[in-house]
Structure formats: C-alpha cells, structure tokens
Write a structure and sequence with these properties.
Layout (H helix, E strand, L loop, with lengths): L1 H20 L5 H4 L4 H4 L5 E9 L2 E9 L9 E7 L6 H8 L1 H8 L2 E5 L20 H19 L2 E11 L1 H12 L6 E5 L10 H8 L20 E7 L8 H14 L2 E2 L3 E3 L7 E8 L2 E9 L6 E2 L8 E2 L5 H25 L1
Parallel strand pairs: 3-4, 3-5, 5-6, 6-7, 7-11, 12-13
Antiparallel strand pairs: 1-2, 2-4, 8-10, 9-10, 10-11
Helix pairs in contact: 6-7
C-alpha cells in the first residue's frame, strides 16, 4: 500500500511539472476562427409574406451561397401545383440544389387555402378577375424580393408545375417584358379556359384550345417558352403542352423545326421540337415518353414526382441560362453598333 501511495504521488508531481513547463496560451488564441474563414457562406431558405389586395400571401426564398459575393444574381420563380405548397415543390423539384451550384435565387410563392381549398392557383378565373389578382400578388412578391435581395431585375424567369405552370404562362403573357424565359411543366396554355368547368375540359384536352394572345408592340417579344409534358399524363392531356408551344409560335410567327429524340442512360426518352423565328428560339416542346402527371426526374418516394424521367430542374435552368446569355450577347452587339 505504501508503494502504491508513493507511485501515485510521483505521477501527480510529474503531471504538475509538465503543466508548469507548458506555456499558457492567451484566451484570444484559443478562440475558433470566424465561420467565414472556415468555409464559404451557407445557402439559406427564408419564409416571407406580402400584404396585397388578396390579403397576406406567403412565400419562401432560397438564397444561394454566392449571394454573399455582392454580385446581383438571377431569380427563378417557381409556382407549385394543386395540393402542394412552396416547400413541397422545392422538395420534389430539388431546384435549390441546382441554384446552389449555378448561383441564382429561387422564389416559391404559395397559394392560400382561403382562395382554393386544394391550394390551386385560379389561373382560369379571368372572367371574375381572380386570376389577374393572383398574378399581381405574385409580381408583388417578385418586386419585394428584388428590393430586399441582390437580385438582377433584368434576369427574371418563371416556371411552374400543373396549375402553377398555367399561372406562370398567364403571368408571362401579361408581363412579357418582365421575364426572359418561362417553363411550363404539365400545364395548360393561357386563354384555354375562363371558368372552373372549362378548365376541367381544357385539362382533359376536350376544349376548343387557347385563344390567340394579344398582338405584341413593335419590337416586343414574348419570353422564350420551354414546355415539358409527359405523353402518359392522365390529369393534364399532352395536347395542352403542344397547344402552348403553338400559341407562342403563332404570336411570334415562328416555325417548327424537325423533331429530335434524346435519351440519357436509362431515363425516359424525350422528343424535342424547337420553334424559331429569324433564328431566334421562341419555344421548345419536350414530350417525355412514359411520364405521367409528375415532375420529371424529381425526388424519389414523393407525390407527383418521377425520378425515372430526365431531370426537369436541370433542363429548366439550362434553358433559362441560355436566354440570359442571349440577352447579354444582344446587349454587346447593340453597344458595338
């Protein structure tokens, strides 16, 4: 017992001598470096709201890591479908992943259950003015986001799924000067319905088709249109996608080019038809073989999502980015001239 006591005391003395020989670091040296020095800014998603003629409307705004660089970035507006909300569309489409990689904001406006029990945008209610009021509430959210964030107002695009695609088309037709591109995924063209009854007929492909769009002012153009639709869609008939592309083409005097089929790996094949006027792309119609009423290439195990299809989110951004690039090239040519 005596030997054990001596050994314990010896160890304690040795440890004390080591501590005494080690110089103390000032407290400031023990502090961790700032977060910004360790890694770049993280992406954030914030919830917001706007008070307008329809009352309070909520939205979610995704801010990419590159937003901290000080450069103004593009904005993509994403409109959800029926029985969805802002978070659901973000989860299904996984658009935020694309935004983080490519560097753009994503705004997700959200329909209020008071306006629609199924959270559908009332894109068809043009006779009562409800559709127009909802469209203006969305433009108000866009304006608010542009005021509060470093967003380039010259690089705005809008996309939507199902009822959201219908509302996106209505917005683009009403404000062609605001958006550089529009993407309709499984939607109906504007002017194809004026009431809930005619909307159901149009969705089933039994309506008379969309009315012609108003004539554009001299020198004005519609934003370039991307249509993505499944040929197995049992909710919104595939005819509607073709009608939307034809409507854009008729307004711009564009002609259809030869169809081409693209397939990557084991994903569904897609037949693409481009409509051009004087070499400028007016609309691109993408018919996905075997795709139903679902976001193509979306998250697995979620409603209205089919991971077997081509990645619609990447398709949308690639299309939008090309329109932004074309805008920049035209600006350079104008300045040079």
């Amino acid at each position: 017992m005596t030997r054990r006591t001596v050994r314990s005391a010896s160890k304690a003395v040795t440890a004390a001598l080591r501590r005494a020989a080690t110089p103390k670091r000032p407290k400031s040296a023990l502090r961790k470096p700032a977060q910004s020095a360790l890694q770049p800014a993280r992406p954030t998603t914030s919830a917001g709201w706007r008070l307008g003629a329809l009352g309070t409307r909520r939205y979610r705004l995704y801010k990419p890591p590159s937003a901290s660089s000080g450069t103004r970035l593009p904005l993509l507006v994403m409109l959800h479908g029926c029985a969805q909300d802002a978070q659901t569309l973000a989860s299904v489409s996984q658009m935020n992943r694309v935004a983080a990689r490519e560097g753009f904001f994503v705004l997700y406006p959200q329909q209020d259950r008071i306006s629609s029990a199924q959270a559908c945008w009332n894109w068809f209610a043009t006779a009562t003015g409800q559709a127009q009021r909802e469209a203006e509430s969305i433009t108000g959210m866009i304006d608010q986001a542009c005021r509060t964030e470093r967003i380039d107002p010259g690089k705005l695009a809008i996309a939507g799924f199902s009822a959201g695609a219908c509302m996106a088309a209505l917005l683009a037709a009403r404000h062609p000067d605001r958006f550089r591109a529009i993407a309709m995924h499984s939607g109906v063209a504007p002017g194809a319905a004026q009431s809930q009854v005619t909307a159901v007929r149009a969705m089933r492909g039994r309506g008379p088709g969309p009315k012609p769009l108003p004539a554009l002012a001299p020198g004005a153009h519609l934003p370039a249109l991307l249509v993505i639709h499944g040929n197995a869609d049992g909710v919104v008939a595939p005819r509607n996608g073709l009608d939307a592309a034809a409507l854009w083409a008729a307004c711009e005097g564009a002609a259809a080019g030869a169809a081409r089929t693209v397939q990557r790996g084991n994903r569904y094949a897609t037949t693409i038809t481009d409509y051009k006027a004087a070499g400028r792309l007016v609309a691109s119609h993408c018919l996905v073989s075997g795709l139903g009423h679902a976001w193509s290439g979306g998250g697995a195990g979620q409603a209205n999502s089919d991971p077997g299809g081509p990645d619609a989110s990447r398709m949308v951004w690639a299309f939008v980015a090309r329109q932004f690039s074309a805008l920049h090239s035209n600006a350079i040519i104008t300045i040079a001239n």
